[in-house]
Amino acid sequence: MKIKVLELEEKKARILFEGEGNTYMNALADELLKDPAVDVAQYKQPFKFSDPELIVTTKGDRAPLDAVQDAAKRLSSYAAGLLRELAGINAE
Protein backbone atom coordinates (compact mmCIF):
# COMPACT_ATOMS: atom_id res chain seq x y z
CA MET A 1 0.00 0.00 0.00
CA LYS A 2 1.34 3.41 -0.92
CA ILE A 3 0.20 6.49 0.97
CA LYS A 4 0.86 10.19 0.54
CA VAL A 5 0.42 12.69 3.33
CA LEU A 6 -1.27 15.65 1.65
CA GLU A 7 -1.63 17.83 4.73
CA LEU A 8 -0.29 17.46 8.24
CA GLU A 9 -1.04 19.76 11.13
CA GLU A 10 -0.90 19.24 14.87
CA LYS A 11 -4.52 18.02 15.02
CA LYS A 12 -5.37 17.26 11.37
CA ALA A 13 -4.10 15.01 8.61
CA ARG A 14 -5.18 14.39 5.03
CA ILE A 15 -3.78 11.17 3.60
CA LEU A 16 -4.15 9.72 0.11
CA PHE A 17 -4.27 5.92 -0.11
CA GLU A 18 -3.18 4.87 -3.59
CA GLY A 19 -5.02 1.89 -5.01
CA GLU A 20 -7.27 1.29 -2.01
CA GLY A 21 -11.02 0.95 -2.18
CA ASN A 22 -14.08 1.37 -0.02
CA THR A 23 -13.65 -1.85 1.95
CA TYR A 24 -10.39 -0.93 3.66
CA MET A 25 -11.23 2.75 3.97
CA ASN A 26 -14.58 2.02 5.66
CA ALA A 27 -12.90 -0.33 8.12
CA LEU A 28 -10.11 2.14 8.87
CA ALA A 29 -12.44 5.12 9.36
CA ASP A 30 -14.70 3.01 11.61
CA GLU A 31 -11.75 1.83 13.68
CA LEU A 32 -10.43 5.37 14.01
CA LEU A 33 -13.76 6.52 15.41
CA LYS A 34 -13.41 4.01 18.25
CA ASP A 35 -10.50 6.11 19.56
CA PRO A 36 -11.93 8.69 22.01
CA ALA A 37 -9.21 11.17 20.99
CA VAL A 38 -10.32 11.11 17.34
CA ASP A 39 -12.78 13.86 16.53
CA VAL A 40 -13.31 13.23 12.80
CA ALA A 41 -12.39 10.23 10.64
CA GLN A 42 -13.85 10.17 7.19
CA TYR A 43 -12.73 9.44 3.69
CA LYS A 44 -13.78 10.74 0.36
CA GLN A 45 -13.44 9.16 -3.03
CA PRO A 46 -14.90 11.53 -5.61
CA PHE A 47 -14.80 9.01 -8.44
CA LYS A 48 -15.06 5.23 -8.39
CA PHE A 49 -11.56 4.74 -9.78
CA SER A 50 -9.86 7.57 -7.91
CA ASP A 51 -7.69 7.10 -4.85
CA PRO A 52 -9.47 7.73 -1.54
CA GLU A 53 -8.40 10.52 0.79
CA LEU A 54 -8.68 10.07 4.55
CA ILE A 55 -9.25 13.09 6.78
CA VAL A 56 -8.53 12.70 10.49
CA THR A 57 -8.77 15.30 13.23
CA THR A 58 -7.90 14.68 16.84
CA LYS A 59 -8.36 16.32 20.20
CA GLY A 60 -6.16 16.51 23.27
CA ASP A 61 -2.54 15.47 22.82
CA ARG A 62 -3.27 12.78 20.20
CA ALA A 63 -1.41 13.18 16.91
CA PRO A 64 -3.52 12.23 13.88
CA LEU A 65 -0.85 10.00 12.31
CA ASP A 66 -0.46 8.10 15.59
CA ALA A 67 -4.21 7.51 15.64
CA VAL A 68 -4.13 6.18 12.07
CA GLN A 69 -1.17 3.93 12.83
CA ASP A 70 -2.82 2.50 15.94
CA ALA A 71 -6.12 1.90 14.11
CA ALA A 72 -4.29 0.09 11.30
CA LYS A 73 -2.50 -2.10 13.86
CA ARG A 74 -5.83 -3.01 15.47
CA LEU A 75 -7.29 -3.94 12.08
CA SER A 76 -4.27 -6.10 11.38
CA SER A 77 -4.68 -7.80 14.75
CA TYR A 78 -8.35 -8.54 14.03
CA ALA A 79 -7.41 -10.08 10.68
CA ALA A 80 -4.68 -12.20 12.29
CA GLY A 81 -7.17 -13.45 14.86
CA LEU A 82 -9.63 -14.39 12.16
CA LEU A 83 -6.92 -16.29 10.27
CA ARG A 84 -6.02 -18.22 13.44
CA GLU A 85 -9.67 -19.12 14.01
CA LEU A 86 -10.09 -20.28 10.42
CA ALA A 87 -6.91 -22.33 10.63
CA GLY A 88 -8.30 -24.02 13.76
CA ILE A 89 -11.54 -24.86 11.99
CA ASN A 90 -9.68 -26.28 8.98
CA ALA A 91 -7.49 -28.42 11.24
CA GLU A 92 -10.48 -30.17 12.82
Automatic annotation (TrEMBL):
Residues covered by the DNA-directed RNA polymerase RBP11-like dimerisation domain = 13-81
Single GO molecular function: protein dimerization activity
Does the keyword Nucleotidyltransferase belong to this entry?
A: yes
A single GO CC term for this protein reads:
DNA-directed RNA polymerase complex
Task: Identify the Pfam families for this entry.
Answer: RNA_pol_L_2
According to UniProt, the reaction catalysed is: RNA(n) + a ribonucleoside 5'-triphosphate = RNA(n+1) + diphosphate
Q: What is its EC number?
A: 2.7.7.6
Q: Does the keyword Nucleotidyltransferase apply?
A: yes
> In which broad location class does this protein mainly occur, judging by the first location in its UniProt entry?
cytoplasm
Q: Name its cellular compartments.
A: Cytoplasm
BP GO terms, sorted: DNA-templated transcription
Alphabetized UniProt keyword annotations: Cytoplasm, DNA-directed RNA polymerase, Nucleotidyltransferase, Transcription, Transferase
Q: Which family does it belong to?
A: Belongs to the archaeal Rpo11/eukaryotic RPB11/RPC19 RNA polymerase subunit family.
- Functional summary from the UniProt entry: DNA-dependent RNA polymerase (RNAP) catalyzes the transcription of DNA into RNA using the four ribonucleoside triphosphates as substrates.
Question: Under which name does UniProt file this protein?
Answer: DNA-directed RNA polymerase subunit Rpo11
Which species does the entry assign this protein to?
Methanoculleus taiwanensis
